[in-house]
């Protein structure tokens, strides 16, 4: 199966290979040293011109091609393993409930398939300030690399991990990242950080790097972190066909069996997500390096964390969650709170304060309630609805429902709602229940 995977990696990243395949499949396979007979998996590569990537694979057509069908089954198992990891929630009840609300909110404003796939990882720790790679399409807007965090004897890092583990528990914490707008392999002591992470959470951190070919032996030591049970354990961003050539030459198909190769080449079938730097570049007057770049308009973000974004160099901490890319949130995530720490002893009360303030069951009573950006409140005869292009929440029935919708649209507070319901002789808790239900269903930010 890993040889079919290798064939598809070449097909996805290399447009010259795709052209050659159409012209003479057998010769193309020979020229690129691929051991799979292209005819045995034809439905995976012989797509109509308007159907360019793997989202257009025809499952039914693969039934007549056992090897192609087996490859799809292999991918499905990987997706299911990733989904099982995604469903693990943080241990702290307030954090768990807040995360569930972010999942619901994302389903209110993102396309369904995109929202379903969001992992909502609990934290991301950047070991460096900036990134040396400088991808023009960087979806998280990484700055130029300027500094690395000091590992020293590792105690500070282990203390930070202990604070995070206290919030997430070890199962959810194992889904935390040690990169964001940074590349883990930029840090010369990444392996020390990763070893401590493994000790803290019982599993190595998921690693995505665009520096796989910088030090092949270093990359080789990473590969065992990708397993059938950890399909996102190691992801290698492939920035050029030459880079793919080097990766395929250095590592056997078997050793990459569970490693995800992310085709970011100019001729990739993977469309660029217009977020962060890509959004700036593609909307500015200067064209993107590849000329006309096909965009993935169905993915308005690449942010995957609902939790803490921590930079170990600057000591900045932010509570973030995915949001559709916009002028206000150009990198596709919303910052809910921010602070700074110098030591792990500072970090603990800082994150505890963010949990206490922003992960409440009910918002503070005088803070205006905010309908999620992207949802519009519309009145109905029997109540109101909150709708976006991707979801519709109907709140209907009961004599006060229309009034509730009007008050939400006007930016009411919990205190105001309580006062309003008590004026009808109802207990104030009725207002609290409404607000909690709206928060839990992803209608309020
Ligand atoms: S996409 Fe990744 S590797 Fe490229 S600049 Fe951004 S953080 Fe660095």
Structure report:
This protein has helices spanning 2-13, 15-23, 25-31, 42-45, 59-62, 66-86, 93-109, 112-117, 155-173, 190-201, 216-222, 241-250, 277-283, 344-358, 401-409, 414-422, 429-440, and strands spanning 121-126, 128-129, 147-148, 207-209, 234-238, 260-263, 305-311, 316-322, 333-340, 376-380, 383-387, 392-396. With 445 residues, the protein is an alpha/beta fold. The chain has 3 domains: 2-80, no CATH class; 92-210 and 264-358, no CATH class; 376-440, no CATH class. A hairpin with a 4-residue loop joins strand 7 and strand 8 (316-322). The longest helix has 21 residues, at 66-86. It binds iron/sulfur cluster (SF4).
SSE order and pairing:
Blueprint: H1 2-13, H2 15-23, H3 25-31, H4 42-45, H5 59-62, H6 66-86, H7 93-109, H8 112-117, E1 121-126, E2 128-129, E3 147-148, H9 155-173, H10 190-201, E4 207-209, H11 216-222, E5 234-238, H12 241-250, E6 260-263, H13 277-283, E7 305-311, E8 316-322, E9 333-340, H14 344-358, E10 376-380, E11 383-387, E12 392-396, H15 401-409, H16 414-422, H17 429-440
Parallel strand pairs: 1-7, 4-5, 5-6
Antiparallel strand pairs: 2-3, 7-8, 8-9, 10-11, 11-12
Bound molecules: iron/sulfur cluster (SF4).
Iron/sulfur cluster binds at residues 131, 133-135, 138, 142, 181-183, 210.
């Amino acid at each position: 199966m890993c040889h079919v995977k290798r064939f598809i990696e070449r097909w996805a990243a290399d447009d010259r290979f795709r052209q050659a395949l159409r012209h003479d499949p057998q010769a193309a396979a020979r020229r690129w040293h691929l051991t799979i007979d292209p005819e045995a998996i034809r439905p995976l590569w012989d797509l109509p011109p308007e159907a360019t990537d793997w989202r257009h694979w025809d499952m039914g057509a693969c039934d007549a091609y056992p090897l192609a069908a087996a490859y799809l089954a292999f991918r499905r198992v990987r997706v299911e393993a990733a989904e099982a990891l995604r469903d693990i929630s943080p241990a702290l009840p307030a954090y768990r409930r807040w995360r569930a609300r972010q999942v619901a909110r994302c389903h209110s404003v993102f396309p369904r398939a995109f929202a379903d796939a969001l992992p909502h990882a609990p934290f991301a720790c950047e070991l460096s300030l900036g990134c040396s790679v400088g991808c023009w399409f960087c979806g998280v807007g990484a700055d130029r690399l300027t500094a690395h965090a000091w590992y020293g004897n590792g105690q500070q890092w282990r203390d930070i991990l202990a604070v995070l583990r206290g919030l997430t528990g070890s199962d959810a914490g194992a889904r935390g990242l040690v990169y964001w707008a940074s590349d883990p392999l930029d840090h010369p002591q990444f392996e020390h950080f990763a070893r401590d992470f493994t000790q803290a959470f019982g599993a190595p951190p998921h690693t995505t790097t665009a520096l796989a070919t910088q030090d092949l032996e270093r990359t080789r030591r990473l590969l065992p972190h990708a397993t059938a049970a950890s399909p996102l354990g190691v992801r290698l961003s492939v920035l050029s066909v030459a880079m793919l050539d080097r990766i395929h030459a250095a590592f056997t198909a078997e050793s990459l069996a569970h490693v995800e190769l992310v085709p970011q080449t100019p001729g990739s079938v993977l469309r660029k997500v217009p977020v962060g730097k890509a959004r700036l570049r593609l909307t500015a007057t200067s064209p993107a390096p590849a000329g006309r770049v096909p965009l993935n308009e169905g993915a308005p973000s690449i942010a995957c964390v609902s939790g803490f974004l921590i930079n170990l160099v600057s000591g900045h901490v932010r509570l973030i969650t995915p949001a559709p890319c916009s002028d206000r949130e150009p990198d596709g995530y919303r910052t809910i709170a921010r602070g700074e720490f110098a030591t792990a002893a500072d970090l603990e009360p800082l994150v505890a304060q963010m949990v206490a303030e922003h992960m409440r069951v009910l918002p503070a009573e005088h803070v205006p309630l905010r309908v999620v950006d992207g949802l519009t409140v519309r009145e109905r005869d029997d109540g109101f609805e909150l709708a976006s292009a991707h979801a519709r929440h109907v709140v209907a029935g009961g004599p006060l429902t229309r009034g509730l919708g009007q008050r939400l649209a006007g930016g009411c507070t919990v205190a105001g709602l309580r006062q309003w319901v008590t004026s009808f002789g109802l207990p104030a808790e009725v207002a609290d229940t409404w607000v909690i239900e709206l928060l839990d269903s992803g209608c309020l930010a």
